[in-house]
Amino acid sequence: MMNKIKLKNRFASIWFPQLPLETILSKEPLLDSLPLVVSFSGGEEIICANGLAKKLNISAGMSTKETLTLNPHVISKTVQHSDLKKKLIKLFSFTYQFTPLIRLDGYDSLMLDITGCEKFTGKDEDFIHQLTTHFSKINILSIIGIAGTQGAAWAIARFQNSSNRKQPRANLRKIINDQSRATRIKIPSNRDAENSQRKLSIFNIGHSVNDPMHRSRTIDNDKTEKALISLPVEALNLESTDVNLLNLFGIYKVGDLINIDPTSINRRFGNHIIKRVRQVLGKETELFNKIVWEEKYSFSTDLLLEEITLQGISGFIKTLIKKLCDKLKKNKKLIRRCNVKFPPNNKLLIEINFSNPTQDKTKIELVMLEKLKSIKSLKNIEAIILEGVHIEEARERQIAINVPGRDYTSKYLDEEEKISLLMARIEARLGKNKVKSFAQHHSHIPEKTFSLDEFKTKRKTGNEWQKSKFIRPILLYSPDLINATLYRDDYLNKFSWRGKKYKTCYVRGPERIASEWWNKDKGTNFRLRDYWEVTTTCGARLWMFEEKNKISENRWFVHGNFC
Asked: In which residue ranges of the chain is pLDDT below 70?
């Protein structure tokens, strides 16, 4: 029994039966004067056909190869699932004004949860009229079903007039309970499945808006079962294999399935069929995975200038930036990345990145105009499009106490914002990720104590480099092999490095540095080292080490310079 809350639910299924065909004709309208069929890319079945093709007895569900063999004059086109999804999302943007709860239902329909949206939709008949009028203006055929459950709305939009089909009568209870009959049932052959699919295809053919047999329809919540019992079992949106098996048992209508003991159906076919029936009738809840609507931050203007100049382009861009910032402030958003396009020149593009997201018009203008100056030619452009690519939520900023400054914000945030602006201007001239900064790491191996990473403004601007308890050189080289000529005890007396000869006058050490023995990475060739601080007679203070090797002779390297 449905509770009071479920009795108030209302769903609208908007079916676009000719959407694949309309997607093709939007690009090639002349094909409508020829018999045309559409199938998915890589698929073998026709999903849509125009009127001329239907006159040749071609319908959805038929094989594309057989159709072209029997009718060589038919034009066959393919469509991608992604293209239909993009088309649906464009249609979805219009329905968002009525309800935010919308989901894509397959490749050719939308499902709307309009519960409690009477203020925006009005009466069901008025809502249907608004939708069909809008879609007909953009040459999109739409059939709408409104009911108390998602399954019922889906069913009446597609199968509302299928009750006229005459089905063979049978003693259904006897068929279900007859074990010998059940054991002799065979899996339908490919030919039988194909014939069954052709029978089902009569419900998938697109129809004219003016066809009275296929118009939009609504049903009251308390009349859901009565409206569905005369529809075929295909109206439950089951898999084709389940429909074929149900037909083999003589179950052709939803009413036939309702009148049978559910335990018998569960035993023969599994519990998913009865579960689906209960969802369609509103006795069980069906999940609604809505689309997350992302509002677009895109503004454009046409250029009506006799002579295109940098000053004129700058004025148009400033106007677009103001519109963008006004919308960002209204929605409490920040922008991290934006693009400026100049159609019809698709190669001309300005991309701006901010390390700190912002909604400051002055900051965006400064960086944008800085980048605009680097463009050599602005000829033959007809429009300007400003598009926000990466939009983020605006976070509340901490207000400092007893700190004078602009908007009473802390000095640290002001300093960080200045650095962010400087980085954005540098990237506008040099490109993205051109500025690097050193980062300190905790390791006893000299090569691993630092790295050169992408500069981040969130990193503290103060002196955060921690001093080591060991004496380390100012400059650190990659280990540079030297030519040793004379040893004295455990260190060098004379050596040659980078084409110059040196003589040692003072040596301090050794400091032994071992490898990371706990690291099992065999790719590291770090051996035991003895480091020395070597002062030469010419005044150079070098940081050198002797690499210990049990197999071959030890070698000496220069690793740093204290001067």
From this structure: 1-7, 160-214, 292-294, 305-306, 396-417, 428-429, 431-433, 456-466, 468-469, 488-489, 520-525
d(CA 418, CA 375): 25
Q: Are 250 and 168 in contact (CB under 8 A)?
A: yes
Q: Cα separation of 18 and 336, whole Å?
A: 40
Between CA 104 and CA 141 the distance in angstroms is 17
On the question of a cis peptide bond just before residue 72, with omega within 30 degrees of 0, the verdict is no
- Which distant-in-sequence residues (6+ apart) come within 8 Å of 392 by Cβ? 333, 334, 335, 336, 357
- Read off the pTM: 0.53
65 CB-side CA count, 13 A: 3
Residue 332 vs residues 324, 325, 329, 358, 381: alpha-carbon distances, Å: 12, 10, 5, 11, 33
- How far is residue 550 from each of residues 286, 287, 528, 547, measured CA to CA in Å? 72, 69, 10, 10
Longest dimension (CA), the chain: 113
- The answer to whether residues 288 and 113 touch, using CB atoms and an 8 Å cutoff, is yes
Strand, coil or helix: 121:
helix
In whole angstroms, what is the distance from residue 338 CA to residue 354 CA?
Answer: 9
Strands (E), 92-199: 102-104, 109-113, 143-147
Helices (H) then strands (E): counts for the chain: 19, 21
Q: What is the pLDDT of residues 139-150, one digit of tens each?
A: 899 999 999 999
What torsion do the CA atoms of 61, 63, 66, 69 make, to the nearest 10 degrees?
A: 90
Tally Cβ neighbours within 10 Å of residue 401: 7
Strand duo 11-15 + 436-440: pairing? unpaired
As given in the structure block, the two tokens for residue 105 are 């239902």
C-alpha closest to that of 104 among 291, 379, 245, 279: 291
Q: How would you list the strands of the sheet with 36-40, edge to edge?
A: 46-49, 36-40, 75-79
* SS3 (DSSP) at 398: coil
